[in-house]
Design brief:
Order of helices and strands: HEEEEE
Largest sheet: 3 strands, antiparallel
CATH topology: Ubiquitin-like (UB roll)
Shape: globular
Number of strands: 5
Bound molecules: FE2/S2 (inorganic) cluster
Structural class: alpha+beta
CATH class: Alpha Beta
Radius of gyration: 11 Å
Oligomer: single chain
Strand order of the largest sheet: 3-1-5
Distance between the termini: 14 Å
CATH superfamily: Beta-grasp domain
Helix content: 10-25%
């Protein structure tokens, strides 16, 4: 995962069946578990209320530069 792309963009390239809908952090469809690296995730927009250290909305989240993020997909 790179810091200049959303996690959904990276996942979608590797796994075209990645589920999503609104792409704005509202619906929760894209929520995935975070196995490690949760402290290095940057979240944007309305996802703040739904994010936890162990899960993220990939449409509005990305890893910080140089960080390693492992997702449970
Ligand atoms: S696609 Fe709706 S919250 Fe991510």
């Amino acid at each position: 995962m790179t810091a200049d792309r959303s996690a959904l963009s990276v996942l979608g390239a590797a796994r075209p069946d990645t589920a999503y809908s609104c792409r704005q952090g509202f619906c929760g469809t894209c929520r995935v578990g975070v196995l490690s690296g949760g402290d290095s995730v940057r979240h944007h927009g309305s996802s703040t209320a739904r994010r936890t250290r162990d899960a993220m909305l990939v449409c509005v989240s990305r890893a910080e530069a140089g960080a390693r993020l492992v997702l449970d997909v």
